[in-house]
Amino acid sequence: MSVAQALAPVPGAPAGEHVFAGGRIDHHVGRIAAVVDPAFLAEAGWDPARQILVFAPEHPLLGRRICRAEGCATTATAASGVCGSCRKRLIENGLDEFEVAALPPRERRSQRRGPECCRVPGCAREWLSLRSGLCSAHAEQKRRMPGVGFSAFLTHQTVKPLPLLPDCSVQACVRQRRHPAGLYCDAHQQRLRSLRKQDPGLDESCWQVTESAIGHGGEVSLRGLSPLVVAQLLAGLQQRCRINAVKTCDAVLRVLVNDIRAQRVASLADYTIGEDRDLEFTGLANCLTGHARRVLSTPETEVTQDEWDLAVFGHNGTLSFTAITQTWLREAAKRWAADDLPRRRVRSGRRTSAGMAVRHYIGCLARLSESLRMRTDRGEHPQALGRTDMEAFLHRLAYLESGGQISGDARIRACREVRIVLTRIRAMGLTRPGGIAAGLGEDFAIGQSDVPAEPEPGEPNRDLPPEIMAQLCAHLDRLTSPQMRTAVEMAIDTGRRPEEICALDFDCLTRDDDGLPVLIYDNHKANRPARRLPISEQTAAVVIAQQQRVRARYPHTEVGELKLLPTDRRNPGGRRAITAFSLAFAHRSWVDRMPLLHNADGIEYDKAKIVLYAYRHSYAQRHADAGVPVEVLRELMSHRKLETTSGYYRVGETRRREAVDRVTAMQFDRHGNRIWRQAQALLDSEHARRVVGEVAVPFGVCAEPSNVKAGGGACPFRFRCAGCDHFRTDVSYLPDLHAYLDDLLRTRERLLATTELDQWAHAEAMPSNEEIRRIRRLIDQISHGLDELEPEQRQQLQQAVTIARQHRSVTLGIPRTRNTLPDLRPERTT
């Protein structure tokens, strides 16, 4: 259930009447009470008249484990499932914890602990003890009739039922007073007596307000709290059960309520958690307080705060603007965030990175705020800011990078994100007269040229070597959790992102028309739901085995609501999946526990490289090495662009060589003659020649020795490639030839129209008709060669051209050198 659904007022629920029996409540309390569902109050055992919660022991989130002994309703906190009283009975009877069933049943008339009604028929007063079963008045009467048995006493004509006594004067207590003349129940009377001995000056009226109720297993008294706090606690408990789906211990909730009562707060917002409280108590208090605060929060009220609860906007986490000290910049940042958040995608019941992304933007603005504080006016006046202030900010980012305090990527992102925000606040009109940032100069901005250039990405290398993958698969049995093992196997076999693996539905496996298995998953990153991925029968068997385990664990949950990988936490119905964070943590622990891993050379492999996302790169590399076309691999990876897919794998030497074979089989000399028709017979020697050395020219390659030695910068023929025997071109350079021809024609037309050159200069600059004819012939011959190919051959050649152009070296004026040959005899010394 989403936060918005949980916070919606219950249709048809009277404002507060199902929470408070009688009495008038103000509008503010009524709005909170309207959010509380009567159905939830019924399952939580809420008594609006007595203001107590009585949790059913069998409730999946609010229940408790009761003692295994027959007839005992006491909470069993020990691992054995036996309460302290029954453990004593076991010892008395010479039994151990495995023989609980041999204990005689306890004589209890109800499952509720604490005083019940006197056993005299019709008497409304509470008994003093289970042993006597009588109220104080009837117990005293029984004491004066020693010869009368208990059964006879109950029906004796002198024994009359007595009316109900007033409640104990302690506001939280639901017990009756001990006798008509007293003020307290027996337990609180004893507590007061003990406290007076310790503190003779005890303020009894204050003690009546702050003293806690007598605790009973499964019961929590909210008496003595303000109506606002009662409504907040009930609303918070409802959201904790329905949104967080986390168990709540009645004993911890009882301690929290007692602490709230002792602080006498009017609202949960005023409650202070003690420093000595443990994590369970702190977590419960923060959870209830947070949910209670969100009940009446709206985006309109939240944007006025300096710290936002992003749950109000449909996202996760919080967003703080306190690090931005300039008023105009802080308010502009709020306006920008309020404008940006609606554009972020949300996922019902799942965390997203939207809050993290917006927090990063605000963090970058905080760096800008820190830089502006160095001014004498601390940057409070936007109209006084200019280019020098922005340059100071850019200088500080460079200084932080040089000192290793931020990475180069963080510096680039800071520049980009500040640029985006400043551009957007101007577009929103915030810099106009009367706006938040009125007067902010146009020169206080970051231009495109101010953003440092990103380094050119290297060749993909995040995939794991086959020998490492084999070693990992050999240790899969060390993953003890079935969910985690299934998730890791699915990541290895399918190459899906960790988030996509974790979010798989129970019925994610189907069959195509040929009966082959297909995995259905959601590509959340690209917002492409219900993607279909062909998988092997072995992977399908892994899915089927996991489905059987899940169904056996959650037999009563609808199949459409189950997850394939349900989490063990906060998940009584199997509707919540494991998170990518928990999967990554389990995977890292598994990898770290392995023995040393070695690559094919016997060198220890760095385990830090073995991350979940590496399996996705390995999946892409496996398919690329198997010759899967890049268009098909793009669909398998669920990418929109081929460029994205190409960043996931390296083209192996075998595929590169095949591409060169196809391309060079369509190679031509300067006359346009095809020079390599019998390419297969010469492939080995030609490959060797290409490796030894050649230099790239604008639309082909040059093998002239002196030019190669000089790195392409010392052509003895003044770069007349179209007329040189050392020049070669092939089909992969066809686009370059077209571009060169167009440039020659443009140059010729421009020179024909000019009159500013001398005749000799004009003749030197004019492209020759022979060169133009030669380039045209090259283009025609290459195109004609393509037309002679069959459609399938033409498609294969086009793929080879794409590979060759992707991996063609950029001309840097450096000749190609021989690759290092493998050392076939490492035992020899140099």
From TrEMBL:
Residues in the signal sequence: none
| Tyr recombinase domain ranges (all copies) | 459-661
Q: Name one GO biological process term.
A: DNA recombination
Q: Give one GO term, molecular function aspect.
A: DNA binding
**Family matches, as InterPro entries:** DNA_brk_join_enz, Integrase-like_cat_sf, Integrase_catalytic
Which Pfam family, any one of them, does this sequence belong to?
Answer: Phage_integrase
Q: Which domain of life is it from?
A: Bacteria
Q: Which UniProt keyword terms apply here?
A: DNA recombination
The keyword Cytoplasm is annotated on this UniProt entry = no
Q: Report the protein name in the record.
A: Tyrosine-type recombinase/integrase
Which organism's genome codes for this protein? Mycobacterium simiae (Mycobacterium habana)
